[in-house]
Design goal:
Structural class: mainly alpha
Number of strands: 0
Number of helices: 7
Shape: globular
Order of helices and strands: HHHHHHH
Radius of gyration: 20 Å
Helix content: over 70%
Strand content: under 5%
């Protein structure tokens, strides 16, 4: 047996390292998906604490949007400052709207379940637009959020279904990245 050929009993080390690098590069997306699934389940089950969850999650999303989009920004200080301000205003607006949805005066008009679904739609729209103005992969998260809002609106206890959708979405993102890497190495 040639020592340069990979063994059939041991996985190729380069394959493992590529998989690890891919998972590491996609970890922000994975964390966002996990947080969204938890938020969907939490909103569906414990609406009275959902505002606190979204108040914590929205700044985390803003941070990820900054991190994810930062590499696509020109390296001059003016462009970076503009991106930072635009991103903070973008996510800050969502934070303010969520606060408005939970105002005491609106509790008679909006029920808890409707408010949760509205927040998911708004979060999805905000993530999608963040992807339009930053890293396009953030738009995938936005589409996932909007789809999850639709599923929740039509099905009860949708967290399990959204978990399955999230797994397929993450797998699709990994395959897309692999495809793009092969395409760029072939060029």
């Amino acid at each position: 047996m040639n020592s340069n050929q990979p063994s059939l009993t041991q996985p190729d080390k380069s394959l493992r390292s590529r998989l690890f690098r891919t998972l590491l590069m996609d970890s922000p997306y994975l964390l966002i998906f996990i947080a969204v699934i938890m938020g969907i389940a939490f909103t569906d089950m414990r609406m009275e604490f959902a505002l606190l969850y979204w108040e914590i999650l929205i700044p985390i999303f803003a941070f990820f949007a900054l991190v994810i989009g930062w590499s696509g920004v020109a390296e001059d200080a003016k462009a970076r400052s503009a991106f930072l301000i635009r991103t903070l205003l973008h996510w800050g607006a969502l934070f303010v709207v969520v606060q408005i949805l939970y105002l005491e005066q609106l509790k008679d008009v909006l029920n808890a379940e409707l408010t949760g679904i509205e927040i998911i739609f708004l979060l999805g729209l905000t993530a999608f637009l963040s992807g339009v103005h930053g890293n396009p992969r953030m738009s995938v998260i936005g589409v996932f959020l909007v789809a999850s809002g639709i599923v929740i609106a039509f099905l009860d206890d949708a967290a399990l279904l959204m978990s399955v959708v999230a797994v397929f979405t993450v797998a699709g993102m990994l395959l897309w990245q692999k495809f793009m890497a092969r395409r760029s190495s072939a060029a």
